[in-house]
Amino acid sequence: MLNVYLSGEIHSNWREEIIGLCEKERLEINFTSPVTDHEASDNCGIEILGGEDNNYWKDNKGAKINSIKTKKSIEDCDVVVVKFGEKYKQWNAAFDAGFASALNKSMIVIHNDDHQHALKEVDAAASAVAKDQYQVVRILKYIINGNL
Question: What are the chain's domains?
Answer without folding.
Answer: 2-36+74-145 (3.40.50.2300)
